[in-house]
Amino acid sequence: ALASAIEQVRDELHRTRDAATRSAGVAEAAIFDAHLLVLDDADLRSAAESVIASGGSAASAWTAAVAAAARDLEAVGDDYVAARAADIRAVGDQVLRALAGEPIESMVGDGILVAADLTPAQAAALDSDRTTGVVLAHSSPTAHAAILARARGIPMLVAAGPPVLDVAAGTTVAMDGSAGELEIDPDEETRQRFAGRAEAEADRRREAQVRAHEPARTRDGTAVTVAANVASTEEAEAAATAGAELAGLVRTEFLFVGRTSAPDIDEQEATYLALAEAMGGRRLTIRTLDVGGDKPLSYLPMPPEANPFLGLRGIRLTLARPELLTDQLIAIVRTAHQTPVSVMFPMVTSADEIAAARGLLADAIDRVGKGSPPGLQVGIMVEVPAAALTASTLASDVDFFSIGTNDLTQYVLAVERGNEAVASLVDPMHPAVLRLIEATCQGAGERVTVAVCGELASDPQAVPALLRLGVRELSVAAPAVPFTKEAVRSTDLRQN
Ligand code: PEP
Ligand code: MG
Questions:
Q1: CA–CA distance, 189 with 362 (Å, rounded to integer)
Q2: Does 144 participate in catalysis according to the annotation?
Q3: Which of the following is catalytic: 14, 35, 138, 144?
Q4: For residue 362, how many C-alpha atoms fall within 13 Å in the half-sphere facing its CB?
Q5: pTM here?
Q6: H or E stretch at 206
Q7: To the nearest whole percent, how much of the chain has pLDDT over 90?
Q8: Mean pLDDT of all residues in the chain?
Q9: Is the pLDDT confidence value at 283 over 60?
Q10: Does residue 453 carry a catalytic annotation?
Q11: How many whole angstroms from 96 Cα to the centroid of ligand 1?
């Protein structure tokens, strides 16, 4: 019974992963690969089987094995490992439902869904025509469920607090995901106010789309490049349709996660060329593999780290394992001989790292044997405060900087991204973050362009401040491209 329940859930997970890949992209769907790995966990399975062998029922054996495995992980006291425990519990519940012969859970019903939390599978199963919004008592904006819902255009409000679970089914609620506002049983005036906001939002979307393919200039005529962050060919197509002038950040992790070995050079080249085609031949800013610590790869075993965000991640990891980076750079160089490409190194702290990465790039160019690709630009992500503060030194080694405000904010404010307990302290508009952005722009000088590719770039309130500090490229999620162009157009750099 247990074996067949596990097989049933395996089929369900494959279907959910394929649906999520189509609707949200490969990177977002990778969580289901993690869930599939839980099903294959030999220790979990043998723990359950030994209880069955001594006379326990399949359901009780499985429940005990899942609970013990999750408890062990939670006891480690690390957020990343605790998230793995949540994966084990989510998959455990799915197997239990299959054992009990219950149908696959689907979120049916019209209107706003209120829940404690959602598993990624549940978020992927939401019917976006019927679910007009989701309110969660827990979770954080960077949780997998929130990312999946966002990519599918379903408004979501997270960390609303446990009292929200007492709201009776059928109650009218008004929610505004952007403002993080929730009104239970709103009076007529409040309803009108929220309805007015929703209409204004729809109008803004229509208007922004009309001019989405025109370039963005501020009122005083300063040209600003609006680019897109992409992690799949679907997103690249959406970016081109939304008017993105280039891919300002290609998160190549999507090619490397959820598999048992790294993609070879040919596969990488084919994927980058497919992205370029989906982008209509626009420039790709290909970020080299940004994993490690908090984002492990099964084929890259690494010892556990007490502080993974301060550990072997980004460029540190790929310089420590240069064979991975060399293959990727060869694929990038080959691509750059066929279509406009910039290469970008993540999580750089020092000039030594840039020199080492450039050395590997030079080797890759030699190995491809066609000389330096025309128009190949080399840049770094500025996400470590030290890089922002020494930007004038680093500038001499690069063509561009791209500021990753997601990581820069966590490092300068000492607030871990995705940790619900400190989510309220995450403030990318904090004066300390803005000073680092300013330092980066000043250090860049005239020759080196400065982009922002963190989430902050798509906040219309932040756009004028970023442009005033000297940022000249904004790279945002595809659906945000038209709005970001409008935010640029309404900025006047002559005013303070
Ligand atoms: C960032 O850190 O702001 C960024 C864009 O990179 P990622 O979110 O992929 O870490
Ligand atoms: Mg980052």
A1: 65
A2: yes
A3: 144
A4: 6
A5: 0.74
A6: helix 188-210
A7: 57
A8: 89
A9: yes
A10: yes
A11: 37
